[in-house]
Design brief:
Elements (H helix, E strand, L loop, with lengths): L3 H11 L3 H11 L6 H11 L4 H5 L7 H13 L11 H17 L3 H19 L3 H10 L3 H19 L9 H4 L11 H8 L2 H4 L5 H11 L8 H11 L1 H21 L5 H25 L3
Helix pairs in contact: 1-2, 1-6, 1-9, 6-7, 8-9, 11-14, 13-14, 13-15, 14-15, 15-16
Length: 287
């Protein structure tokens, strides 16, 4: 890659489509990605949309996508059809960096740089590190390498950022969880919403969890599958989910030194683990 902007744009293109991924694989030094691998990662397990990881519903669209679209509009740019897609966000980030470097007007350059920094702070860094952990956890070599390269590239961008005045809005606005009066089936919605639970449960991880808990895995939407697991064996499913929260807490904590965002995610995953363990203890108390 000629420069950082080309690198970031190419890394985003990998998540866009199998054709785009193959086109940039050589320049990035990555092995070609098959259509099956691309679908496994970016369609079935780790959709590359900020709204899935930062939105209060853990789904495509909604407030998460609206927040990203609002950023595009604030720049007087018509939002693309998928304003929170990783490829669109990284392309915009690169575009702002290039524009700031090319303009001959210092005031304009400063405004473009501030916009780029805000984009990174509010719409990229709050979810990308955990997302890349989830991609690497799938264990597909070509895209694990992509996740590692992307992680290094965005970490370099973070290192160049000035101190942040506050946590990103999506994290500040994330609802706290008390689970008071919540039935087990209702936990599925929280546990499959990353910004509420602090964890990312992919379809593949849920299937592995069902095997570990000794219950059947029902193919379908993740919340449906998890509700079915709770219905078959509540204690075993709670124990597995608590262990999963602990696993994510450790992953977040590895990055938490000097990173308030990672510290927020680690605390949220730890809280989820505590609540799951408490619920399991109540189930196991003899009546």
């Amino acid at each position: 890659m000629k420069d950082r902007w080309e690198l970031l744009r190419a890394l985003g293109a990998v998540a866009d489509s199998p054709v785009a991924a193959r086109a940039v694989a050589g320049p990035l030094g990555l092995a070609p990605v098959s259509e099956a691998e691309h679908t496994e990662v970016f369609v079935l397990n780790c959709p590359p949309y900020a709204s899935v990881y930062l939105g209060p519903d853990g789904a495509l669209g909604g407030k998460g996508a609206d927040r990203a679209a609002g950023f595009w509009r604030a720049l007087a740019i018509t939002p693309p059809a998928e304003p929170d897609h990783l490829s669109a966000l990284l392309a915009l980030y690169a575009r702002l960096g290039e524009a700031a470097a090319d303009t001959g007007r210092p005031v304009t350059a400063q405004a473009l740089t501030q916009a780029r920094l805000s984009l990174f702070r509010e719409h990229l860094w709050p979810w990308l590190p955990a997302y890349l952990d989830a991609v690497a956890d799938l264990g597909l070599p070509g895209l694990t390498a992509w996740a590692g390269l992307t992680r290094r590239a965005v970490a370099a961008e973070l290192a160049a950022q000035p101190a942040w005045p506050a946590l990103p809005l999506a994290l500040r606005a994330a609802p706290g969880e008390t689970w008071t009066g919540l039935r087990l089936a209702g936990l599925a919605g929280i546990l499959t919403t990353p910004v509420r639970s602090g964890i990312i449960l992919t379809r593949r991880r849920l299937a592995a969890g069902a095997a570990q808990a000794g219950v059947g895995y029902r193919i379908g939407e993740r919340r449906y599958a998890l509700r079915a697991m709770f219905g078959q064996d509540p204690p075993a499913t709670l124990a597995w989910a608590a262990a999963e929260a602990a696993r994510w807490q450790r992953w977040h904590a590895r990055r938490a030194a000097g990173d308030e965002v990672a510290g927020w995610w680690a605390a949220r995953a730890a809280r989820t683990g505590t609540l799951l363990t408490e619920r399991l203890a109540r189930l196991e108390v003899p009546t």
